[in-house]
Design brief:
mainly beta; globular; three-stranded antiparallel beta sheet; Jelly Rolls
Length: 84
Amino acid sequence: MSLGGESSQHTQAGNEIVYLLESAVILEVQGKPPVTLKAGQAFQTVAGEVHNVKNASGSAHTKALAFYVAKKGTPLEDLSVPVK
């Protein structure tokens, strides 16, 4: 994720598991307080959960490894859906 970047509010068609490789992020899940996570930590979201992920660093890009668990045959473009 770029400096100052964020995903914008979205949901997934399945469960998402994210492991942070570098830098830090702020995870904002609807209805919960924001959480700051650093490299070496992980988070998960469940299908349909509205959330946003922001780069928490002003000087470093964020790198993460994400896994998605969805119904077989779910197109990749349907895994992340913006919230309107």
